[in-house]
Amino acid sequence: MNDTPGYRPLYRQVYDILVRKIAEGAWKPGEMLPSEQTLAREMGVSHGTVRKVLDALTAENLLLRRQGKGTFVAEHDQDRALFRFFHIARPGGERLVPQSAKVKIRTRPCRAIEAGKLALRNKDMVFEITRLRLIGGKPAIRETIILPERLFPRLDRIGDLPNTLYSLYQSQFGITVAAAREELRAALATQDDQSSMGLKAGTPILVIGRVALSLTGQPVEWRESRVRTDQLVYAVTLQ
Amino acid sequence: MNDTPGYRPLYRQVYDILVRKIAEGAWKPGEMLPSEQTLAREMGVSHGTVRKVLDALTAENLLLRRQGKGTFVAEHDQDRALFRFFHIARPGGERLVPQSAKVKIRTRPCRAIEAGKLALRNKDMVFEITRLRLIGGKPAIRETIILPERLFPRLDRIGDLPNTLYSLYQSQFGITVAAAREELRAALATQDDQSSMGLKAGTPILVIGRVALSLTGQPVEWRESRVRTDQLVYAVTLQ
DNA sequence: GAGTGGTCTAGACCACGCA
DNA sequence: GCGTGGTCTAGACCACTCT
User: Fold this and answer.
1) What topology is assigned to B10-73 in CATH?
2) Has residue A102 got a pLDDT over 50?
3) Which of A84, A194, A203, A206 to mutate to test the interface with B (most CBs of B within 10 A)?
4) Would you say A165 and A152 are in contact if contact means Cβ atoms under 8 Å apart?
5) Which residues of B lie closer than 8 Å to A, measured between beta carbons?
6) pTM higher than 0.90
7) Residue range B29-60, pLDDT digits in tens
């Protein structure tokens, strides 16, 4: 019947249906899904098959299950989810929550490199957010964030952008960041880096480029973070 | 009855038994495990419980399952496993296999910082391996690798160290690297960096520190990689 | 006590690899 | 044709949460 896979297991079909419904907002972040029994009945499959899918989605941080309570759509401002995409830490591993300062937002046509990262056409309009992030009260990261205007209508009308943007994307625009690709390299602090973060000329900094992907795999944000790493590191665990 | 977990599900017990047996070398890397049916019978649990555990171990890259053939202990020199701990790539994502050059090995007492990373006592003996890594034929990474002598007896008697050390650890010393913690920061190229990799003074480089952990969570290797990132990046996917 | 997820079982049938 | 893993089912019982 189908051509690409030739055959799709039942649990795969159930998986796709649930992901699509979550992406469409059939259940909002934080809301409870129907129980396993109910889902199984509605979809005409067994308890075990539904369970396998719910377990997989939980492992992917898309759902949250609590015994005795129910299965919930994961929210970005929850516990560990906060640090899923934030990897700056003190050497040794201690993670700190950064504050945002000097937040600016403007609208402009996207540049070629941004069009490539975000799968836009040249000159499509984007929002450009720039901000300074403080760790322990001291300037530590300078960020530029590019968002397609089409996906975030009237973003610039929002008064105060919150510290954790991904919660905003999710609650205000129905966009859940499900994955990200990052590329890291070393560079020298520019003039702007130096004045923003109080660095001397010739200081090396860590530059992190990130493409954030939605539930459907669509690129929704391009971000460049310029980090001073005299007191901080980028920490990652490989398993 | 127990205090810490209070209760350990059956599948958790089966999981622990299998990990221990693999760590002890009951089955060597590349060898086939008994079939699901056999394991279930021997352990007195059901097919489904064994299956749940084997699936989990497969997801952790500890086992490899092939329909129609069997379940095998994963090897480090297999396909995707090669890149599990190697994240240097060209911008955009293309991964290249690095070559090793100028490999040197010596024995010495460990330093305080290494003792901390590897949970050694001060002055425990370690092997220090230094090497230059070439990507596309050009010097790109300078590495220092510290190994506890106790875990790698007579490592210095091995003539040619292979390009992929983790395969060697596994095949010659029965040590499987199962996870790693990395910390990245930016630094300026040292004199040695400059002469080894042909860099100018004041060039920023990426410094990657890594502690590699065995199946049992024991730290077995400390490594520092100094990477030129004018043509390369450190690429990571967050999910 | 009712409803939820968590564990565990027993068994059926399918798809794949190999001799 | 046999043995392997892969899928799917139906049902039992346990553990947790809330009322």
Assistant:
1) Arc Repressor Mutant, subunit A (1.10.10)
2) yes
3) A206
4) no
5) 60-61, 84-85, 89, 91, 93, 178-188, 202, 204-206, 209, 227, 229, 232-239
6) yes
7) 999 999 999 999 999 999 999 999 999 999 99
What's the angle, vertex CA A29, arms to CA A27 and CA A31, rounded to 5? 60
Q: What is the mean pLDDT of residues B183-193?
A: 97
Structure tokens, B25: 């070398």
CB pairs under 8 A between A and B: 100
CATH code assigned to A78-234: 3.40.1410.10
Task: For B68-124, write each residue's pLDDT tens digit.
Answer: 999 999 998 776 677 889 999 999 878 888 899 989 999 999 999 999 999 999 889
User: Would you list the domain boundaries of chain B?
Assistant: 10-73, 78-234
Strand D and B7 CB separated by under 7 Å: yes
Q: Which of A37-41, A121-125, B158-162, B189-193 has the lowest mean pLDDT?
A: B158-162
**Whole-angstrom distance, CA of residue B206 vs CA of residue B208:** 6
Return the pLDDT at B217.
93
B188 to chain A: closest CA residue: A204
D10 C1': nearest CA residue: A46
Distance B42 CA to D2 C1' (A): 21
Please tell me the distance in Å from B32's CA to the nearest CA on chain A. 23
> Which of A3, A94, A9 has its CA nearest to residue A45?
A9
